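Comment thread on ticket #2218

A.B. wrote:
> Attaching the input chain for the structure job we discussed in standup.
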Amino acid sequence: LAHPVVAAALAGWALGDLPVGLLVGVLMGLLWSGALPVGGVVPPDETLGSVVGVGVAVLGARAVGAEVLPAAMCGFVAGVPAALLGRRLELVLRRYNAVLAARAEKAVAAGDVGAVDRVTVQALLLAVADSNGFQVGTRTERAARPSEHRDGRIRIGIEGTEGIEQAARRC
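C.D. wrote:
> Ran it. Output below, let me know if you need it in another format.
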């Protein structure tokens, strides 16, 4: 389901325009067919780009009367930056997960075994929020920042107007 052709076709079918979905998916798949996650490389999120592209193509271009090919090209143009944004969000999540893992190790070394469960839930909630578009862009109005309760438990708080990347670096 994560392949751009499959995801875009499903999004196109759900929006009522399978041909546009297939075309956007093929274009996105061809663009990043050689981008493999080898080592520490994080390729663009072509699945996110494909689904965003199909949304723009069907709900935007096709809605105003564009033919299949011009609509798909509009979707492709919108999907490329979305895929690149997805890569940046993935990098931020990886940095944040490293911070959470270090805090969990520290808490376990101090005898708090329940910290592993709490950190796992926090990391999963952050990943779900990210995958659902809860955090859009590398510059948001509010940024998630880990902080600690007085009893030592880790929580995710909302703070300031800085970007997500700056909050992750500060951790």
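A.B. wrote:
> Thanks. Noting for the ticket: The longest strand covers residues 143-148.
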